[in-house]
Amino acid sequence: MKNPNTFTWNAIIRGYAESENPKPAIELYGLMHSNSDLVTWNSVINGFALNGKPSEALALYQKMDLDGLKPDGFTMVSLFSACSKLGALALGRRAHVYMVKVGLDKNLHSVNALLDFYAKCGCTKDAKRVFNEMVERNVVSWTSLIVGLAVNGYGSEALKYFKQMEAEKWLPSEITFVGVLYACSHCGMVDEGFRYFDKIKQYYGIVPQIEHHGCMVDLLARAGKVKQAHDYIQQMPMQPNSVIWRTLLGACTKFGHVELAEVARAKLLHLEPKHSGDYVLMSNLYASERRWSDAHKARKSMLEEGVAKIRGHSLVELGNQVHEFHTGDRTHPQSEEIYAKLVEVTKRLRLEGHVAHTGHVYADIEEEEKENALVHHSEKIAVALMLVCSPPGTPIRVFNNLRICGDCHVVIKLMSKVYGREITVRDCSRFHHFRDGSCSCGDYW
């Protein structure tokens, strides 16, 4: 290439940044750093935000600020996306202040991203305030709020806003209805969910897509109607995908339906044979039934197939820095204080009558070993750090990449009461808002 100009460089960098391996984008960016412009910065930041590299996106945004370049609306959209994935609430709030200062709070795309950011950080009050203050709205605005309230466990409120959306003559999109059905599913509103599903086609003329059918399977499965969920799958107008079969498998594990679980597992072996979660679910189901030989076979086949288990981790923001923990993690500089706090927590919760839910440890080991394994789950370590390092009464927000286990759910409920903290945990499927010994999910999750 002979004497490439800025436009050419930007096109190349954008292509790399939006690929599965955005590393070359950084290298190319370094070559032209002195001549880089806002378009270049936005290309790289957006590429990282879209490709599961939120930490790198935030680092570049902070460097951009040091270099004196002022973000525009495109930057803000990518920034809020990265902040929401990392749970970087403090940085997102600073970006919000900046938006207002420079007038970007009138930019519809930026404000929609801000609303989505607050909802994904569990700050539904802030999300509603942003929505109510919007000068201009579109379907994305309504959908972001409805979906945000639904995943935070406020299904009734999500449906209230949907009814308001209808009253104001907005036409909901396919994604809006995913949020509506999600709200019904996560709040146990089975009959209501079926009424809304019928409305999609009969009233709005929208042909239900596989995502809508997946919500209906989830609706039945979460309610313990596992056989009905399987019947629904059998009658779907399209071939069910791996997500739908995995939903059924998860419900079978929870409610102890071994035969249907094996049916779902057989389908998943055909559709997505290398998914580690399926091996784990089957192993856990067999273990819960004390079929240790079958549980061992499931784990062994996972190893033989070269399938790596997804490692659980928890993120928590403290002092404008995001801290990451894994189960049993002792790499943090304050590990000694953290584990001392966990010992204290265990003692205080025992006084409250807590007994470890060792049934959630699917291994043929002694009860004491199971209790120790549960104490060191990553979300408990993250909460312990905040108890050590943040002032009393400060809200705590933890982001998990996997579903919170039953024992952690019970323990964190009690911690919110004993330590007087509001604790929010976002796992891979929803939010749990713990306060005064109860959870927003109503123990329906």
From TrEMBL:
Kindly list the biological process annotations in GO that this record carries: RNA modification
Q: Which InterPro entries match?
A: DYW_dom, E2_motif, E_motif, PPR_At4g14850-like_plant, PPR_rpt, TPR-like_helical_dom_sf
Carries keyword ATP-binding? no
Where does the record place the DYW domain?
353-445
* A Pfam family it matches: PPR
NCBIfam families in the cross-refs: PPR
- This one is known as DYW domain-containing protein
Origin organism is Linum tenue
